[in-house]
Amino acid sequence: MYRGTVANEKEGLCKSGKKQMKHKIKTVVSLQSDPQVLMFNVNWKLAPERSHILKFMLTISDTFHRDELFEETDLSDYKYAFKGCILFSGAHYRAMFRQLDENTWTVYDDEHVKVLNSWREAIEFCLEVQTFPTILFYEKTCLPISSSKLTKG
To answer: Which 3 state secondary structure label does DSSP give 138?
Structure first.
């Protein structure tokens, strides 16, 4: 029994002898169990403008239910909470992770650790140093979910 599937369709070309025929390729990914951590890669074609970084960071969901992502799932209470991300600017990476007990954000880079007091400060930091999220991390939780957006305070 699959706990969840994601289907993706795209058009492709298939060679049969000397002929090329158009066809649809369907990819199906199935989960046998709920992973503890889900990671999402954000593919930026070029370094984004400040307005695009801001818009993206304001749309990051604080939590989501697995059923929002996968079809054919059972009705478990598992939700995933946003824990942090890998940031990129130029040739430099940073990690930014949430401290749930204090609802603060900590930025780690090669030489410094910086504590930010809110998601709003985290966004301002990213805009100030022109860095942007490339990998988002969500962790499985059974905690009640009160909001679908990050606290902006």
So the answer is: strand
Q: Are strands 79-89 and 132-141 parallel, antiparallel or unpaired?
A: antiparallel
Taking Cα atoms as reference points, which of 132, 128, 98, 101 lies closest to residue 115? 98
Residues of the chain with pLDDT > 90, as a percent, come to: 42
Helix (H) or strand (E) holding 124: helix 119-129
Instruction: Please report the DSSP string for 25-52 in residue order.
Output: EEEEEEESS--SEEEEE---SSPPPHHH
Give pLDDT tens digits for 18-28: 666 566 666 66
Provide the whole-model pTM: 0.74
Domain span holding position 124: 34-141
Sign of dihedral through CA atoms 46, 136, 93, 59? positive
Write the CB contacts of 47 (distance below 8 Å, at least 6 apart in sequence): 89, 90, 130, 132
What phi, psi does 92 have (nearest 5°)? -120, 135
Is the residue at 10 inside a domain?
Answer: no
In a domain, 148, yes or no: no
Confirm if 44 and 53 have CB atoms less than 8 A apart. Answer: no
Q: CA 93, CA 98: separation in Å to the nearest integer? A: 17
Count of domains forming the chain: 1
